[in-house]
Amino acid sequence: MKNRNIVLVVLSAGIGRRFGGLKQIKTVGPAGEVLIDYSLFDALRIGFSKFIFVIRKDMEEDFRNIVGKFWEKRTEVKYAFQEINSFLPSNFPALSRKKPWGTAHAILVCEDLINSPFAVINSDDFYGYESLSLAFDALSNIGNEYILISYKLEETLSPHGYVSRAICETDENLYLLSLTEFHKIGRKEGKIIGYRDSEVIELKGDEQVSMNLFGFFPTVFEFLQIEFENFLKEKGWNHEAEFLLPDVIGKLVGMNKVKVRVIPTSSQWFGITHPEDIEMVRERIKKLIKLGKYPERIKGKNL
Q1: Where are the domains of the chain?
Q2: Count of Cβ atoms closer than 10 Å to residue 119 Cβ
Q3: Which of 53, 97, 185, 293 has its CB 3.0 to 4.6 Å from that of 194, i.e. a possible disulfide?
């Protein structure tokens, strides 16, 4: 029997440096919808039982008013707060750090709210119904491995600037072997170029990449706690260092601590990285509404 008690965790605490503001609550739909509203609409009809929004205290009022209050009327909603001092060891020195610790830390702050399988998504990405369905079905039918829904690299690039992506290497059975972060990926003179550390790499475009659509079980929290302490010892003094989900999962796979099944999707992805992406996102939303994939108005509609 399928496990139907599956939670959706929405990462919304980023500060949007390249965008220059809170892209999580930027209007993209005709009735005031923000991008995450479309993933939440999909998640509700797929059968996710609860939404957990990971946010910062300084954005709570705006986020609740624009996103939270609408969905609180339709399903169970909880909030987890990602703050600089969250889950820090008692002996860790105080820092003047302002940048959040990263996506793996964002998952860690949800620990007290989760006791069932859960999927993770970013609030500034559009994943598509099929991708969320793949995650939900996988989590309903497995119990000893994690999952990663992957996208083709060339379909996740922005025409308006560079992006960072974690490229998946898998075995013949599509189990993850490594997850390598590439930065400043973009098109140049007809080629796709990216940086692995300081090394320039030409990429093919058909590589499978993570867009932070993962599926986990509560066992992940123990791993995250241990790895966060290791991260703090190694890089905690660096105000720019981030405890990122792809880095942690790649490390755990490399140590044979976890198994991660990679599930490629053909769903259309798009997202907001740069300010210029907003108009592209709005046009794509309009097209999906015209195709009948979404109602013209999600906000104000009885779901």
Answers
A1: 7-290
A2: 26
A3: 185
